[in-house]
C-alpha cells in the first residue's frame, strides 16, 4: 500500500537533490574554515586580475596621471603609493570574498539541516513499516 507521507518526503528530497542541493551537497564535504580557505585561495588571483584591469582602465582614461604623480611626489613615493593601493585593494577584495563565502556556507548549512531532517523522517517511516511487517508476521 502507498504511504502518502513517504511519497511526499521522498519528493521533497528528490527536488532538493536535483535542484539547489547539487551545490549544497558538494559543500557538505568541507568544514566551514576549509571551505572558506579553499574559496579564498581561488578568489585572490581574481582580486589581483581585477586590480590590474582597473589600473589599466584608469590608465586608458587618462594616460598622463602616472607622469603627473611622478613629477609631483617623486619616483619612489609614486611606486610605493601604487603598490600600496594595489595591496590594499587586493586585501579588501579578499576580506569581502572571505565574508561572502562564510555567509554562503552558513546559508547552505541551514538547507542541509532540513535535508537531513527529511532523511530522518523517511528513515523513521521505513523503520515503522519494518516493525509493522515483523508484527504482522508474528501475529499470523
Write a brief structural summary.
This protein has one domain.
Q: Tell me the domain tally.
A: 1
Shape: rod-shaped
Q: What value does the average pLDDT take?
A: 84
The Cα radius of gyration reads 28 Å
Supply the key terms.
mainly alpha; 0% strand; single chain; rod-shaped; 5 helices; 140 residues
Describe this structure in words.
- This protein has one domain (34-132).
- Helices cover 90% and strands 0% of the residues.
- The protein is built from 5 helices and no strands.
- The protein has helices at residues 4-18, 21-27, 32-61, 65-73, 75-139.
- Helix 2 (21-27) crosses helix 5 and helix 3 (32-61) runs antiparallel to helix 5 (75-139).
- The longest helix has 65 residues, at 75-139.
- It is rod-shaped, with a radius of gyration of 28 Å.
Amino acid at each position: 500500500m502507498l504511504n502518502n507521507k513517504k511519497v511526499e518526503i521522498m519528493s521533497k528530497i528528490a527536488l532538493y537533490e536535483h535542484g539547489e542541493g547539487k551545490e549544497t551537497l558538494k559543500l557538505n564535504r568541507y568544514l566551514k574554515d576549509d571551505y572558506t580557505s579553499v574559496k579564498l585561495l581561488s578568489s585572490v588571483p581574481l582580486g589581483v586580475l581585477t586590480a590590474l584591469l582597473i589600473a589599466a582602465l584608469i590608465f586608458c582614461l587618462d594616460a598622463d596621471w602616472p607622469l603627473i604623480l611622478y613629477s609631483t611626489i617623486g619616483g619612489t613615493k609614486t611606486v610605493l603609493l601604487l603598490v600600496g593601493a594595489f595591496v590594499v585593494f587586493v586585501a579588501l577584495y579578499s576580506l569581502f570574498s572571505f565574508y561572502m563565502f562564510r555567509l554562503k556556507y552558513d546559508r547552505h548549512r541551514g538547507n542541509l539541516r532540513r535535508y537531513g531532517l527529511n532523511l530522518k523522517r523517511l528513515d523513521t517511516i521505513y523503520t515503522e513499516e519494518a516493525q509493522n511487517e515483523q508484527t504482522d508476521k508474528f501475529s499470523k
